[in-house]
Amino acid sequence: MWPRHVHERFLEILLNGSEVISLFSIECCGPPGSRLLSADGDGQIKCWGMTEHLVNSWECTQSSSLDGDPIIALSWLHNGVKLALHVEKSGSTNFGEKFSRVKFSPSLTLFGGKPMEGWLAVTVSGLVTVSLLKPNGTLLTASESLCRLRGRVALADIAFTSGGNIVVAATDGSSSSPVQFYKVCVSVVNEKCRIDTELLPSLFMRCTTDPVRRDKYPAVTHLKFLTRENSEQVLLCASSQMGSIVECWSLRKEGLPVNNIFQHRSPVVGEKQPMILKWRILSATNDLERVSAVALPKLPISISNTDLKVASDTKFFPGLGLALAFHDGKIQILHRLSLHTMGVFYGSSGSSQRVGEEPAIKRQRAGGPTLHFKALQFSWTSLALVGVDNQGKLHMIRVSPSMGQMLDMNTLLRHLLFLLEYFFFLTILWFFCLSWLAVKVLSTRIVAVKASLCKLSSATAARACDFHAKLLLVAISSTLKSLLRPHVLNTPDKSPGDRLSEICTKNNDTDIDKVMINLKTEEFVLDGPPLQSLQQLIQWVEDFVLYLLANLPNQVSSTWRPLPAVIVAVCCPVSSWYPAWTSCPSTMVS
Length: 590
Prior knowledge:
Layout: E1 6-8, E2 14-15, E3 19-26, E4 35-39, E5 44-51, E6 54-65, E7 71-76, E8 83-85, H1 95-98, E9 99-101, E10 117-123, E11 127-133, E12 139-145, E13 155-160, E14 166-171, E15 179-189, E16 192-203, E17 219-227, E18 230-239, E19 244-255, H2 260-263, E20 275-284, E21 291-295, H3 305-313, E22 321-326, E23 330-335, E24 341-346, E25 351-353, E26 373-378, E27 384-389, E28 394-398, H4 409-426, H5 431-434, H6 440-454, H7 461-481, E29 484-486, H8 496-506, H9 512-517, E30 524-526, H10 528-533, H11 535-557, H12 565-570
Antiparallel strand pairs: 1-3, 2-3, 3-4, 4-5, 5-6, 7-10, 8-9, 10-11, 11-12, 13-14, 14-15, 15-16, 17-18, 18-19, 19-20, 21-22, 22-23, 23-24, 24-25, 26-27, 27-28, 29-30
Helix pairs in contact: 6-7
Keywords: Activator, Membrane, Nucleus, Repeat, Transcription, Transcription regulation, Transmembrane, Transmembrane helix, WD repeat
Transmembrane segments: 416-439
Subcellular location: Nucleus
């Protein structure tokens, strides 16, 4: 079994306008999502833990404070565990060939090489702070300036190197200013935390050197390393009120040029040409709409040219695309190195369009502010996007494994099986992989999330009761549908209960006897004894539905009370075979 594995969870969103959330989980033998880091605009950093291992109950276990200094970047220290995904070995039966461990040093180690837990944060004033969790439960905290001349930092991101160092990228928000990079080394000396910083090569965005675009994009709005464990590739986005441009840069070693006088000198045996590190631009987009959010893939696919060629040859596209959300509500999937468009999603209409196709209907802009995403994150499989819009609503969008490319169904299923093996191997939540195939897998999970969020406020406690009642109805519906079994053992694509629900949904007749006449009874076999044992449960469901319907006039006449979600769920043609809640998230690219 692998050692304790720390993952940054797929949500890293802005909360209440000032709070940054970074969730991680220890993926060894315990349940995922066991700890939570939060930081706010007042400089308060808190570490939360589950109460009695309950995901709906959290308590603050540790905290640190930088009073009045807002936190703009936050990350857990790396624990030294990194896995590589070998796409070309997807057909192998040896899991050691499919998924291998990469040599990677922790950010800080205890006696015996055990990684030390802790977190690192960057503030607006250019301060980096590190908090270390000692085995006895105490907290070691230290702060240091990123450089001698401290200045305002508008954006920052954190990455890690294989040697155990930390790299911080920072910018003051102006595209005419350089993007600075700093190496941060953390150590413990005499029971005190010590931070050493070193300035690394910086870069200027190429759009500022273009005479046409020099003043077109004055602000840097997004700064992200392409992966958490690769500090040599960074994504930058400069914007204005009219549009944005995205650039991808890479740090490379280059030979130091020498004067012509020394070039003709005979080299000494064993002498090497001096090398320097220099940022080189890999690709850039054309003028885009104004970007509101950026999401990067999390699959551990190496981003060297060789590995990308293998992924392209095997047509394994998950993990190769990044997502850009725009202020007009649109989302684009771009190749994370070439920045070529792979797919487009139109949030306003809920339809998707392949690259090169013309839209069937010209979309007109509606009056008022357009619904767009303020924060966007990929799931671990890159088959789902989770975003928060400008109205505070949470959305989940499923992404096709083909990323807009033409692939046959067998190839798609083979890639999904490979991803499912990977997540079973790491014991990560599996339903992110199946979200593209079965939408209903996520429906109850989303209801549970809504119930947990509503419990956080006393004003929405009634809604939490509604969602818990809905989960109960879903469980009862699944139990009743499971009583039906197919007449033959050849299992069809849908279960008898699902086929019966589909028939009842399509039939608008309110007379249940007429609906039953049109059913082919030979397709459905009902187990009598289990149904008889559930007689009291069926009677309870009938009483519950009748109570809700009888209480509906009181709810509608009361203007100050919201309509319960359970009443909305059951105010449809009532049938014991109907799922209590069915919804289909939008499809990104088909």
